[in-house]
Amino acid sequence: MLGRQMWKLLTCPDSLMARILKARYYPRTSVVRASLGHNPSYVWRSILAAKEVVVQGSRVQVGSGRSISIGKDPWLPDLQDGCVSTNLNEELAAAPVSSLMMPHQRAWDYNAVSDIFNSRDKELILKIPLSSRREDDVWYWMADSRGCYSVRSCYKVLNPITPGSLADVWRKLWNSKVPNKVKNFIWRAAHNVLPTALNLISKRVDVPAMCSVCNAYEETVLHSLVACSFAKSCWTSSSVGFVGYCSNFLDWLAHVFTRCSKDECNTAMMICWRIWVNRNNKVWNNTTSSVCQILNSAGQFLYQWQAAKQQVFDVNDDTHRLVHGALCWEQPKFGWVKCNVDAAVFESQGKIGIGCVIRNSQGGFVAARCVSVAGIFGAREAEALGIREALSWMKELQIPCVIIEMDCLQVF
Question: Record's superkingdom (predicted)?
């Protein structure tokens, strides 16, 4: 609850409470850099006790960038550290983030970013999408997909919950609403019998010990499904989120079953299965999928399987019509049009591609558009930018009655 008060000071600096506390305790700085001071009240001492947790779990979302200091504020979208790691001189560290944008444009100055920052900071900066409309630089909470602080999400961050008994883990696993092959896969992963590199080496199979996806660490079950850089990107972009570091996969699974809802647990198991399929494709076919493809295929497969389990049969004379869970394009109502939007990430080229197709209520083609946007964005950000591009296009075409449809479950 104290964290919520600290969050209000961050996000509502013009509120009466924030102005009173600022005048009393930090008149010449921000609440992020405020100290306990001399003769603090019990209220201020209590709020400040939650400051470290809230600030560490929060980032500043770049609007105009004028109120964000390049080297002092946590504005990079990184789970571990939101501040820049490049060594900057004092003048540059105090400069606003807006100085890294193109003059009179809401786009990053690629040459300036490349010249000033190291590879880690450069990649994170270019991942940040810039809005052409929003001017305010606002705080958002990293542990929530909507960016809003809640006591529940903070509790999950603070408390590495002690896993329950193994019997409880197995009960939740076998009662979950996922395909049986996924249950079997998770059971094998929890028992550490998947054919990872280290498990194969322990059986005297001559294979490289390094992870075939990231090629940076030895491949264990936990690394392959959770700790690999690609797997981390999948978890960060999903509704489940990145649970944290555990000693083995069984502990990680127990944490997920303890802190997540039933639907989130089902989604987590499907994502694990799709990450493993992607790993096998890399090993045997030297092909990989993107984060967006992993999450969407996991969600669609789960939805179709669950819908098929609840299939409805309509009896019409001597025929039986099966209503299955396949996702098909549906015509909009008369007088409306439907715009289907999709985005693709081209990491090697440092850009994303966006495609939009408009069809009328009869399914006839109306218009189409494709654009590319410079930047190293994640899957969810790319899909969101696709929606923004589609809405701007609809405004240009002056189409009043339009339905926007996409295949990404993480954008809402």
Answer: Eukaryota
| 176, 266 contact by CB (below 8 A) | yes
Cβ atoms of residues 241 and 145 within 8 Å: yes
φ, ψ for residue 355, nearest 5 deg: -125, 140
Which residues have a Cβ under 8 Å from the Cβ of 203 and sit 6 or more positions away? none
- Asked whether the beta carbons of 262 and 176 are under 8 A apart, the reply is yes
Number of domains in the chain: 3
**Same domain, residue pair 23 and 98:** yes
In the predicted model, what is the mean pLDDT of the chain?
Answer: 86
Specify whether 280 is located in the same domain as 347: no
Q: Rounded to an integer, what distance in angstroms lies between the CA atom of residue 368 and that of residue 373?
A: 17
Give the span between the Cα atoms of 97 and 75, in whole angstroms: 9
Average pLDDT over residues 206-234: 93
Q: Is 323 contained in some domain?
A: no
Nearest to 246 by CA among 210, 222, 270, 230: 222
What is the tens place of the pLDDT at every residue in 330-357?
889 998 999 999 999 888 888 899 999 9
For residue 316, give the amino acid letter.
N
On whether residue 114 sits in a domain, the answer given is yes
Q: Could you tell me how far CA 298 lies from the centroid of its own chain?
A: 15
Query: Containing domain of residue 341, as a range?
Result: 337-405
Q: pLDDT tens-digit profile of 351-395?
A: 899 999 999 999 899 999 999 988 878 888 888 899 999 999 999
- pTM of the complete model: 0.51
Of 124, 158, 192, the last residue of a domain is: 158
Please indicate, yes or no, if residue 285 is contained in any of the structural domains. Answer: yes
CA–CA dist 288, 282 (Å, integer): 6
Kindly tell me if the per-residue pLDDT of 294 is higher than 80: yes
Q: Return the sign of the alpha-carbon dihedral for residues 223, 174, 407, 282.
A: positive
The structure tokens 């990680």 sit at 252
Contact (Cβ atoms closer than 8 angstroms) between residue 196 and residue 263: no
For residue 87, the tally of other CB atoms under 10 A from its CB is 9
- Please give the backbone phi and psi of residue 341, each rounded to the nearest 5 degrees, phi first: -125, 140
Segment 234-254, tens digit of pLDDT: 998 888 887 767 889 999 999
